[in-house]
């Protein structure tokens, strides 16, 4: 399936998959902290992670099922990959400080 996908969309899909893993880790930590401390802040963080996890999962679905969504403009594909990369960097930092 990767061979049928444009290179920038393959990069965006891979980054979304990394984001799903990082958000899964964050969700696990934050739900556990909420159960331990009952803080509204940790509940909000868990909800934040859940929403972004769903967003990334839906993005992966659309990258595979609707290739035409970004197929017409390589610059749009690069922009999508760049935005996914920025999200990945942000989630790496957030995961690092959360797990630490």
From TrEMBL:
- The membrane spanning regions, by residue number, are 12-31, 43-64, 76-99
Write down the InterPro entries for this protein, in alphabetical order: DUF8036
Keywords assigned by UniProt?
A: Membrane, Transmembrane, Transmembrane helix
Protein name (Swiss-Prot/TrEMBL): Uncharacterized protein
């Amino acid at each position: 399936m990767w061979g049928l996908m444009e290179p920038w969309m393959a990069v965006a899909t891979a980054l979304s998959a990394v984001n799903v893993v990082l958000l899964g880790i964050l969700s696990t930590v934050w739900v556990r902290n909420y159960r331990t401390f009952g803080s509204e802040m940790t509940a909000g963080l868990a909800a934040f992670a859940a929403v972004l996890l769903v967003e990334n999962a839906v993005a992966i679905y659309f990258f595979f099922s609707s290739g035409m969504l970004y197929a017409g403009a390589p610059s749009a594909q690069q922009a999508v990959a760049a935005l996914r990369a920025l999200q990945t960097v942000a989630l790496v930092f957030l995961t690092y400080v959360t797990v630490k």
